[in-house]
Design goal:
4 helices; 65 strands; 997 residues; 5-stranded antiparallel sheet
Length: 997
């Protein structure tokens, strides 16, 4: 170790190195070096390997260069350190504080070759196989960096180097100026009592006499190294050390220095406490049961004799009879190696004592003594089991090798009968426990068949019980059961008895057992009957029921031991015969729609026993053109309960059905190899005949067309209508009924036309109904009405008209008369007359005329039947002459008066009457008033006749009227005023009373 190397130098030159701060310690300024044998080897071979190794060569060179650089930096950091803070074996910090350097120190300079006045902190770490150095610098205001004050923050921090490849054993080691190893936990030096280090590997040499207390207790490193293995890609794993030495030395200030310390004194040692562990040896002692009969003593707490050797005396004292005592001695300067002691028999017990002592000249106090009680374990035996005689599978031979040299070891045998059962001691044949290896065990005849017989052996020596041996087993197979069959069956009534054939080849000590199971009507296998010595089983079967049986045989020793796979008898099948006859079938025939030339017959029966169903066969005959009444012959048996019969509509059918009872398992071919055979015949059937049945005839489709003989809708008087024929099913023929306007003609016909006797101008709608018929049936009629037609009506002839009188005055009355037409019987004559100005008159008529001139009347006529009319006749013309009447006579006043209110300014009333004669057609009267010299009309009335009253009133707004006038005018036929009479009245004449009233 680097620490040991430094301690040797320190002990050799100790007296020369006792200055307080080490200023005169030039030998301690030895520059740390990098042990670079591996690097050198890598460099020597690098030129030849660069091409072939590529990346690995580059990594080799990089790692070697990094180690060299790290060594120089580590050495310089140690040499310049003002203080060292070692956190633990993987974390250390070097502080370089301005003005606080020990010994001879060359200050660092900055980039301008000026003395650097900043504080520098360099932290080295070993983390996951990588060595790193992180440097932080501080301002001149913090000359002690953060040493002792973590709150001080650096001005700059950077990682300056990182080297990987270290293994997990790499660590930092340190020793102080007194040669003592230093151990740190969380930054505190813990000395020899560091529990976290277990037992620290302290220096072999103890404190020399010239080292003072404060030097020996100093916690700052004088030597601080990096040790461990580094893996190189090409060179492999090589040990590496990076060495460093500081100028740090303890100060005597404040230390208590006795005068005795200046003179070396004799040092004595107490062995202290020694402890050890005892375990079986893997190298010494005879081998029994695969293990050595020896022990290994491993001293876990060595005695302390300082720089002197320790003597360890071992004594084995057995407590087991026939086991020998053993002793040995070991003297060592270092931690003692494990000590082997032979002849410790397996199973023996005793006490192992170790006594540790120092050389008598330097020992103070008593020896260190420690005792441990120990029992050498008994090994696990190896057991084998076999059957010495194959004809005696019930005899088993157990064999194993001894597990101890002591003859007093005995073996207890145990057996486990059947997997998972409890282990029990075996008491047969030999005493238990067995004093010597090997044993023969005989079991009762038949008891070992089908049972896993597992054995084990447990070694014992007094109260010492060893582990049980391996479990060795033997299994005896049951002989297979073969040749199983059925004895002849016995069927009496509904009872079936089946018997499995006897089986007498069971091995000695065992007996046969039988069981059966049933599958009725293939509904599923029922449970087994259960094992018993009885070979027979009975079953009650209904008629037509199928019974399937399975039988098995096994050999049994007791209720728990029997043949695992029994022998099987072949599957046996039996169907109980059917003796019952069903009731005669009942039948019904039907005529399904759209079935073509077929009908349907359905039937049913009753009376079949439980578990059976009816089965039928049938035949038919049809009295028509199809088979001409001959029976078709019976069909085969079937469960079908309906069939289609080939027959036309309108044909007669006779039908017979035979019924019998069957099950799903009768009248079939039996499965191959099954015994007994399934029966192939059964009881006779019950026969029934259906009453003759006639198949109905469906109503035919109506005719698709009915038409008039000459076509169209207007025809001559005598006519006929025709229609398309209607098709009927095969074996039938068609017949028609026909009629006109809802009235049928007499009987049916097969013709497709009908004559019709018609009348003039009458509408006719034909109707045809069709039916299909056979010798046994008729269908319903399919009626349809055809399009109507109307018979012709002749044109009217010989039409005339006349006007009477031929000349009239305006406003006179005349008669216009019409005649002729010659319309046939059954029709009527219709006249119409036009006057040339848009007016139309029917028949003879009269009228008055008010204008002069000539008026022409044109008359035409036509013949009208019940549903049609003929063409118009040729026109006939008559003329009327109208002349003006004479002038009317003047109207004659009867009276006329005017009255007003007393004030003369309100309302004027007048009334009067007049009369006239002559040819005036109408009259009008108008009342006028003069207001401001202007005559204004007040009221006008018009009459027709020769006289009329006149009365009225007028509201005067202020009395400005001076004259009133009433005029009556006669109007002739042309509307012109041809005469007028008037009367004037003065208003002032009526102011105080009536005038002319």
């Amino acid at each position: 170790m680097p620490a040991e190397r430094v301690k040797q130098h320190l002990n050799q030159f100790g007296r020369l190195l006792r200055s307080d701060r080490g200023d005169a310690d030039p030998i301690l300024t030895i520059t740390s070096v990098m042990l670079s044998a591996i690097i050198s080897a890598a460099v020597l071979g690098s030129m030849m390997m660069v091409i072939s190794f590529g990346t690995n060569f580059t990594l080799e060179q990089t790692r070697a260069t990094g180690l060299t650089t790290a060594g120089k930096m580590w050495s310089l950091d140690a040499n310049d350190a003002s203080a060292v803070s070692m956190i633990d074996s993987s974390d250390v910090v070097f502080y370089d504080a301005v003005g606080r350097h020990p010994g001879v120190y060359i200050s660092r300079v900055n980039g301008t070759n000026q003395i650097d006045l900043t504080c520098r902190k360099s932290e080295w770490r070993l983390t996951a196989g990588t060595l790193t150095d992180t440097v932080s610098t501080f301002s001149a205001a913090n000359p002690t960096c953060d040493y002792g004050d973590p709150s001080i923050q650096p001005t700059a921090t950077s990682q300056v180097i990182s080297v990987d490849g270290f293994n997990s054993s790499a660590k930092f080691t340190a020793a102080n100026a007194g040669g003592r190893d230093l151990h740190y936990v969380n930054g505190t030096e813990v000395g020899l009592s560091a529990s976290s280090f277990g037992t620290p590997n302290q220096s072999i040499a103890t404190r020399a006499s010239w080292w003072r207390n404060y030097e020996w207790a100093y916690s700052q490193p004088r030597v601080i190294d990096v040790t461990g293995d580094v893996t190189f890609p090409l060179s492999g794993v090589k040990p590496t050390s990076i060495l460093g030495t500081t100028w740090l030395s303890p100060t005597p200030q404040g230390a208590t220095v006795s005068t005795a310390e200046s003179t070396p004194t004799k040092v004595t040692y107490s062995p202290g406490v020694v402890t050890f562990n005892v375990a079986r040896s893997s190298t010494v002692g005879a081998v029994y049961g695969g293990y050595h009969e020896g022990v290994t003593v491993d001293i876990t707490t060595p005695a302390n004799c300082g720089p002197y050797s320790v003597q360890y005396d071992l004594l084995w004292t057995p407590t087991t009879a026939a086991a020998p005592s053993r002793s040995t001695t070991l003297t060592t300067f270092t931690s003692p190696a494990p000590i082997d002691v032979d002849q410790i028999p397996n199973g023996s017990a005793g006490t192992m004592k170790v006594t540790a002592s120092c050389p008598s000249a330097v020992q103070s106090g008593a020896d260190a003594v420690y005792s441990v009680a120990y029992t050498q374990p008994l090994p696990q035996p190896t057991l084998t089991v076999g059957t010495p005689d194959p004809t005696q599978p019930n005899v088993h031979k157990l064999a194993w090798a001894p597990v101890s040299s002591l003859s007093s070891v005995v073996y207890r045998t145990q057996v486990q009968k059947g997997t998972g059962n409890a282990w029990v001691d075996q008491q047969q044949a030999t005493p238990n426990p067995d004093p010597t290896p090997g044993k023969t065990i005989a079991w009762p005849l038949g008891s070992t068949y089908g049972v896993s017989m597992n054995y084990r052996v447990i070694p014992e020596l007094g109260s010492t019980v060893g582990n049980a041996s391996n479990e060795a087993g033997i299994y005896t197979q049951w002989p297979p059961v073969t040749g199983v069959a059925w004895d002849p069956y016995d069927s009496t009534g509904l009872n079936l008895t089946t018997t499995v054939s006897s089986y007498t080849t069971c091995p000695a000590g065992t007996s046969p057992q039988y069981q059966q199971r049933l599958n009725p009507d293939l509904t599923g296998w029922q449970g087994w009957s259960g094992w018993s010595p009885s070979r027979a089983a009975s079953t009650v079967l209904q008629q037509g029921q199928l019974a399937q049986r399975l039988g098995e045989v096994r050999c049994a020793y007791d209720a728990a031991q029997y043949t695992p796979t029994p022998g099987e008898a072949p599957q046996l099948s039996w169907v109980q015969p059917i003796t019952s006859i069903p009731a005669p079938p009942t039948m019904v025939a039907s005529n399904p729609s759209s079935s073509g030339p077929t009908a349907t017959v359905s039937w049913a029966t009753s009376g079949c026993p439980v578990n059976t169903t009816p089965e039928f066969r049938w035949q038919d005959r049809v009295d028509n053109n199809l088979v001409n009444g001959i029976w078709t012959g019976f069909t085969g048996w079937s469960a079908t309960m309906s069939t289609s019969v080939a027959m036309n509509e309108g044909a007669k059918l006779e039908f017979q059905v035979v019924a019998r009872c069957v099950s799903s398992y009768t009248w079939d071919v039996p499965p191959a190899g099954e015994e007994p055979q399934i029966p192939t015949n059964g009881p006779p059937g019950a026969t029934a005949t259906m009453s003759p049945w006639v198949r109905p005839i469906a109503t035919p489709a109506a005719t698709t067309n009915i038409w008039n003989d000459t076509g169209g809708t207007s025809q001559p008087k005598n006519d006929r209508f025709l229609w398309n024929p209607v098709g009927c099913p095969s074996g039938t023929w068609v017949q028609y009924r026909r009629g006109i306007n809802g009235a049928l003609y007499g009987g049916l016909t097969s013709a497709t036309s009908q004559d019709v006797a018609t009348s003039w101008g009458t509408k006719y709608t034909p109707q045809v109904g069709a039916e299909c018929s056979s010798a046994y049936a008729d269908s319903a009629f399919a009626d349809v009405a055809g399009p109507y037609w109307v018979t012709n009506v002749p044109q009217a002839t010989g039409v005339g008209n006349s006007v009477s009188p031929g000349t009239v005055y305006t406003g006179g009355t005349v008669w216009v008369s019409v005649s002729g037409g010659n319309c046939p019987a059954g029709t009527s004559t219709h006249y119409y007359t036009t006057d040339g100005v848009g007016d139309t008159y029917y028949g003879s008529f009269s009228g008055s005329w008010g204008s002069t001139g000539t008026k022409t009347y044109t008359t035409r006529a036509y013949c009208q039947g019940p549903d049609a009319r003929g063409d118009d006749s040729a026109p006939s013309t008559a003329t009327l002459r109208v002349i003006p009447p004479p002038a009317p006579a003047a109207p004659a006043w009867v009276n006329l008066c005017v009255s007003t209110p007393n004030d003369g300014f309100q309302t004027m009333h007048f009334d009067g009457s007049w009369a006239s004669s002559s040819w005036a057609t109408s009259y009008s009267s108008t009342f006028y008033i003069e207001l401001g010299g202007v005559w204004t009309a007040g009221k006008t009335q018009t009459w027709s006749g020769t006289s009329g009253p006149d009365a009225g009133s007028y509201y005067m707004s202020g009395g400005g009227a001076s004259y009133f006038e009433l005029r009556v005018t006669a109007i002739n036929a042309s509307g012109s005023s041809i005469y007028s009479a008037s009367a004037d009245l003065n208003a002032s004449q009526a102011t105080s009373g009536a005038y002319g009233c």
